[in-house]
Amino acid sequence: MAVEHQASVLFTKNYQATAHIVINQGGTSSGKTFAIMQVLFCIACENVNLVITVVGQDIPNLKAGALRDALKIYSDSAQVASCIRSYNRSERIFEFNNGSVLEFKSYDDAQDAKSGKRDYLFLNEANGIDWNIYTELALRTRTRISTASIVASVMTSYFQLKSDIHDIRINQETQNRVYDIRLKIVESQVGLLQQQVDELRTERTGTKHIKPYLTNHKFTNSLIH
Fold first, then answer.
1. By C-alpha distance, which of 5, 39, 60 is closest to 153?
2. Dihedrals φ, ψ of 170, to 5°?
3. 212, 224 in Cβ contact below 8 A?
4. What is the pLDDT of residues 36-88, one digit of tens each?
């Protein structure tokens, strides 16, 4: 028997959101993922030929989270089910009667994330997704007017912190290279000064420099006059 789920405050806020990036913060089992999946199903039912991508850090993570919630909504809601033409279990893709698609994916690296474009992006547990993967996905997500084009379930300001850390690392690497160059310059100057000191000592004592050279794979000494 189908059971229609009630819309929560989280559903309403996400459904009515107009920002390019919507960040949902909250504790475990607070209903973020379920509400966002309800929103994505509604958007897919109401708009033709959309591509909606749900991304997790890996497939097991998706199966235990966002995909499980999606299948429950699909199973419990006769209204949602009536809008869906098919569900491909092996590919984890819902195909809607109006041509829209809801897909569940994970990406190994930033290069992998460059494939495909979409209208909506949902990052499930985004704190487990690499920053470079997020960047490539975000660049390939189209904006829809008066709707949220990217829906992210993350801890507050996570991506801003990641960006700040990235900038700090770049600055630190640059500073380390500067220090390394300075150290090499100082070392060369010290070496030159040491050479000059040795020459002065030689002039004062009359000691001749001894320069090693290789004969029959053994070092011997030759006098430089």
1. 39
2. -60, -45
3. no
4. 999 999 999 999 999 999 999 899 999 998 999 999 999 999 999 999 999 99
**Distance in angstroms (rounded) separating the CA atoms of residues 115 and 197:** 64
How far, in Å, CA of 209 to CA of 188, rounded? 21
State how far Cα 126 lies from the chain centre. 8
Residue 123's closest CA among 93, 75, 155, 101? 155
pTM of the model: 0.64
Taking the C-alpha atoms of residue 198 and residue 128, their distance in angstroms, rounded to an integer, is 60
Return the structure tokens found at 221.
Answer: 């000494």
Distance CA 118, CA 61 (A): 21
Question: Which residues have C-beta within 8 Å of that of residue 163, sequence separation ≥ 6?
Answer: 131
Output the six-digit token pair for 75.
Answer: 């199973």
Token pair, residue 192, equals 């030159």
Instruction: Name the pLDDT band for 126 (thresholds 50, 70, 90).
Output: confident
Strand partners, 150: 21, 121
Q: In this structure, what DSSP letter does residue 141 have?
A: B
The H-or-E segment that residue 178 falls in is helix 158-205
Helix (H) or strand (E) holding 44: helix 32-46
Given a contact cutoff of 8 angstroms between Cβ atoms, the answer to whether 70 and 41 are in contact is yes
